[in-house]
Amino acid sequence: MGQKWNGGLNNGLSQMAACSNTYATRNLRPIWYFGTPIINGRQATEVAMDQFTQLIKDNGFRRSPRARIDWTYIPNIGSFIITTTRANTAITTTRVPLSVTVNAYQVDHPNTPVGVLIGSMLHSWLHRAGFLDPKTTSYFISECPMCVMRGYGPKLPATPDPLFYQYFD
User: Fold this and answer.
1) Residue 67 — very low, low, confident or very high, per pLDDT cuts 50/70/90?
2) Residue 87 in contact with residue 127, Cβ under 8 Å?
3) Which segments of the chain are extended strands (E)?
4) What order of strands is seen across the sheet that includes strand 85-86?
5) How far is residue 132 from each of residues 26, 50, 88, measured CA to CA in Å?
6) Residue 75 scores a pLDDT above 80
7) pLDDT digits (tens, 9 = 90+) for 91-144
């Protein structure tokens, strides 16, 4: 997620915003948001990134409770993958710790691609930014992280969305 766009000026359209704009059409606003209507995935991505910036500042300058990264170790049950990271949905815009719980089994699993782990963390942090589930097609909280998991590429029929959902909390 360290991309720069428009030659490093960061004033263009990121791959994540472009991808989210293509696929995210529902639940585009965090629960605390009452501004002008968010009408597409690009605007939802911009609001989410602005909120992440605020949360990181609040955490870095100790204006929020100390963030915790807790861990658990839950192996898969057959082919069913137990969530990779989990976080509760925040209802405010400030003073929200970026706390998550990580399933160490998934992180240690050699067959779990890094992009999938990053997308799972992004999904958890979208909860901390105020976005709600459900984890279904067209919802921003699913589509944005799946864009990261796919390397910002298009959806492919051979890789259905539920393969990604299993990594969400």
Assistant:
1) confident
2) yes
3) 69-72, 85-86, 100-103
4) 69-72, 100-103, 85-86
5) 11, 17, 9
6) no
7) 888 888 888 888 888 788 888 888 998 999 999 999 989 998 887 789 999 999
Q: Are residues 87 and 124 in contact, defined by beta-carbon separation less than 8 angstroms?
A: yes
> Most distant CA pair in the chain: distance in Å?
47
The CA-atom distances, in angstroms, between 142 and each of 32, 164, 167 are 19, 9, 10
Q: 138 with 132: CB under 8 angstroms?
A: no
Structure confidence by residue, pLDDT tens digits, 10-41? 677 889 999 999 999 999 999 999 999 999 99
Count Cβ atoms below 10 Å from residue 26 Cβ, excluding itself.
15
Token digits of residue 105: 């089994």
CA dist., res. 87 & res. 96, Å (int): 11
Report pTM.
Answer: 0.85
Cα–Cα distance measured from residue 23 to residue 41, given in angstroms and rounded to the nearest whole number: 7
Q: Give me the count of residues in the chain.
A: 169
Judge contact between 71 and 104, C-beta under 8 A.
Answer: yes
Q: Which amino acid is at 14?
A: S
**Dist CA 26 CA 70 (whole Å):** 31
What is the torsional sign of CA 26, 30, 36, 41?
A: negative
